[in-house]
Every structure is written in C-alpha cells, then in structure tokens.
Specification:
Elements lengths: L15 H9 L6 E5 L6 H13 L3 E7 L2 H9 L1 E2 L7 H7 E4 L2 E4 L1 H4 L2 E5 L10 E5 L9 H14 E8 L2 H4 L16 E3 L6 E4 L3
Parallel strand pairs: 1-2, 1-7, 2-6, 7-8
Antiparallel strand pairs: 3-5, 4-5, 8-10, 9-10
The chain binds S-adenosylmethionine (SAM).
C-alpha cells in the first residue's frame, strides 16, 4: 500500500457533476454510487448531497485503503466548505467546533469501508467515482480494476476518472492500463467513461 495524500474537495471537477446527475435520473431507484478512493469523505458526501437534492433514493458506498482517511471521513467534520454553494451549506451542514459537520441526513446515506483497489472485490453500482488514485496502482492492479469495473457497473452506468488519472505530472496524456479494453471516454467529458459494447 502506498501512503497517498488525501488531496480532494467538494464537488471536485465541477463539470462532471451534471453528467452524474443526468445519468442517475435514467435508472430505476434505488441507485448506488461508489466512491472507490474516498479519502477524507468530501467526494462521497458530495454524491450523497446530489442524490438528496435530486430526490433520488439510493446509497453511496465509499471506500479507501487508508484507515486514518476513513476515520476523518466517517466523522464528517471539515474546517472549510470551499466548493459547496452557500445554499447547500445551510441545508446540509451545521457549524461545529469552529468548522462544519455534515448533517445526519447526508451522513446516513453514506456507508464507509476499507477496501484496497486492484486486490479486493468492488461493489455493483450505477456510477463509479474512481478518481485520482490509479497512479498508486501497479499495472496488474489497474488491469484487474478495469475488468472489475466493467462487471460491476450497471448497463448505462458511468465511470468517472480524475484529472491526475489522465495526465501525468509532466502533463503527458495517460490512461490507466487496460481501461480502454473495456471503456471509452464519452462526448460529455474526457473524464467520464462508458463501457464499450462487446
Ligand atoms: C488524491 S486522493 C483522491 C480522493 C478523491 N477520489 C478525489 O479525487 O478527490 C487518493 C486516495 O487514494 C487512496 N488510495 C491509494 N491507493 C489506494 C488503493 N490501492 N486502494 C484504495 N485507495 C487507495 C489514498 O488513501 C487517498 O485517500
């Protein structure tokens, strides 16, 4: 396991969230969103807020390999809410201990667990957020995860990658190993992938 920093944020990469919303509306309820490298929780809680605001019933499964990150995520307390519109801050957070606590109605929609990508099973879902983590997986793990995602995603489901998964630190375009055997980027965003037809 590599000790990766939990760099993350609320509604990170804003352009993908409308795509997620549109996709979620196409499924029969309840839906499942999986955040596969959830770090300190901002990503899965953003998804839970989206579900709540769309009035779509469902759950958000969130996992990470790092226990300390998961502990912070489960606590649901944050020093700042950069990226969360003020109207949403009022509804989904309350002031606590000099920061903000995610309200119970959002926390109750997220289930956290420890899971190591590339080595452990992944859950069935309609939307998979597997963002800014592929660089920590070796080639074998990347290939296995791509196959697992293909199997786990419901027909019509989407896989979301992060900017760091698609561009090296030297700004060279990159794609996780094996991914394009199973997925293709969509017209909606280069970070949104759908399974290719077999
Ligand atoms: C840069 S953060 C990404 C957080 C979030 N997905 C985002 O894009 O905002 C990377 C996270 O990947 C986790 N991670 C690294 N290797 C992992 C693995 N093999 N399985 C699961 N999580 C892993 C780290 O613990 C860290 O929380």
């Amino acid at each position: 396991m590599i000790d990766a920093p939990p760099v993350t944020g609320w509604f990170r990469m804003p352009r993908v969230w409308p795509v997620i919303a549109r996709t979620l509306k196409t499924f029969a309820e309840p839906v499942t969103v999986w955040s596969g490298a959830c770090a300190t929780g901002e990503e899965p809680y953003s998804a839970a807020i989206l579900l709540r605001e769309l009035r779509i019933s469902g759950r958000v499964l969130a996992s990470d390999v790092n226990d300390a990150h998961l502990t912070t995520a489960e606590r649901g307390w944050y020093a700042d809410l950069e990226g969360v519109p003020v109207a949403q801050q009022r509804v989904h957070f309350r002031a606590a201990d000099g920061g903000y606590r995610v309200r119970h109605h959002v926390r109750a929609g997220v289930e956290f667990s420890r899971r190591e990508l590339g080595d452990e099973d992944i859950p069935e879902c309609h939307v998979a957020l597997v963002r800014n983590v592929w660089r920590y997986l070796n080639g074998r793990q990347q290939e296995r995860l791509a196959v697992q995602l293909r199997e786990a995603l419901a027909p019509g489901g989407i896989l979301i990658l992060g900017g760091a998964d698609l561009l090296t630190a030297d700004l060279v375009p990159v794609v996780p190993r094996g991914l394009l055997n199973h997925f293709a980027p969509t017209a909606e965003s280069a970070a949104v992938f759908r399974a290719v037809r077999r």
